[in-house]
# Entry
Amino acid sequence: MQNKTLPTRPVRTSQNKVEDTVLERRRAGLLIDKHNLDLELEKDAAYVQEVGDEAALACSRRDEVKLERDEVLAELDLRFRAEAEAKGVKMTEKSVQSQIDLSSEAKDIRRRYLGACEYADRLDVLLRAYYVRAADIRALGELYKSGYFSVNNRVRARDNEADRAEGSGANNSSGYGTRAKQ
# Structure
């Protein structure tokens, strides 16, 4: 018996590479410049709409490929049954299905469908990440309003980092407030 290795992932096509580029570009838009929250807030709605539109188009494309897949599989079923009938061979449902499964046309259309599903799912996850980004921008705005990002907090954070770097927290079990005032 011959060992046959099955591919674990579909082969990357030029369409996949284009989709990957789109996803990478959109992922880069998830970064928040916390020093320009007003600009981030202005851009956020447009980002969500753009990604939402791309996700909707990807879902539409996935549905088109699914319909195409169903048509191809039905045509293959009819063709294999007609060929068997012309030869006078009786075929079971399982043998017809096996022939369909092994045909290159069925394999190709199924790969295309899986690729379309993957892209639509990845865009859906990205869209959810943009919703989280919007919530993060609002939370950062609240932190700015409450003074969390004030100059005193930056000095305190720097002092705490220096304490940890010097290892001066070894004598103090909590590790806080051990920096000597100069």
